[in-house]
Write a structure and sequence with these properties.
- The longest helix has 26 residues.
- This protein is α+β, with helices and mostly antiparallel strands and 379 residues long.
- Helix content is 39%, strand content 26%.
Amino acid sequence: MTADIRLQVLESLSDVEPAQWDALAGRQPFLRHAFLTALHQTGCAASDTGWAPFYLALWRDGALAGAMPLYVKSHSRGEYVFDQLWADAFARHGLRYYPKLLCAVPFTPVTGPRLLAAAHEDRVRLANGAIELAARLKLSSLHVLFPAEEDLAALREAGYMVRQGVQFHWRNQGYAGFEGFLASLNHDKRKKLRQDRKRVAAAGVTFRWRRGADIDDDALRFFHGCYEETYRNHWSSPYLSLDFFRRVHHALPDAFVLIEAVRDGEPIASALNVTDGAVLYGRHWGARAFVPGLHFETCYVQGIEYCLANGIECFEGGAQGEHKMARGLLPVPTCSAHWIADARFADAIADFLDQEGAAVGEYRDELAAHTPFKNNDEA
């Protein structure tokens, strides 16, 4: 008997049972029904902010067999894969780049599943279905940001072009605690990291880690105030509201890890991390006081120390930033996938991606040659 397979566009996740969605989404908190729903219901990722949900659902015999988090975007903000030059090229030729179709977790540069399905053939169905949707809506293009490795084969099979990128991640190589990690660094990086930590400690700063029920509303409000201030200092507005963080913490309490910097008994800085138990994802931070070295200690070194103390295998430090290598985070490849409706621009962008990909590869090779870890002569 032939299965009844159909694709449906959803403008709200309320049309999907949370348990069905989460069974496809996997372990990452960013893809959970509660996380995405909080983004939409608080207005952080909604039509009014240029993120109109157009989720693609694949149903087999009435059961959800696949899904794709899609948005019609009127801008490129909050994506961390930069295509503004492409938009400028369209404009110079009198063509409209926006709106475009985007598959991503809003404001989240984290690699993970984007074609949410167990079978390769269903991932291909989703990839092709998204192209058909973009064409039907007469959109300029379709972009899949930070897809997992198992998605790439389906995306390539469907004709998407792949773009290369770089992030910086730390991995636990079986270190015997934090001192074991420090001992693995070369002399200069180890010395500098110790000096930076001493400078922060000499300023009277200590740290506390908070997770689950230990994160109360006062802690969330303080963190969000710091987060807002970081954006204000860069003449910008924050993407995420306090209501969003409250909703996610209520629905997924163990997903948040707050690292607070404390002086004289009061917090002066806060970094929000998200975890799925195997990976710690560094996400947002802010400070109410300036202390030399406080940013690096709060956002990166404390994150590594937390991973070592809690058996977490990997710390992803967020988008960009080769300065993170000095703290033991190493370059890893990331990617995105793209479909362009206009064949002329598709050919030009394909040529650009070939050249850019070669340059990114050379950049990764150059970074790898400057590892912060001991070489064989120092071992």
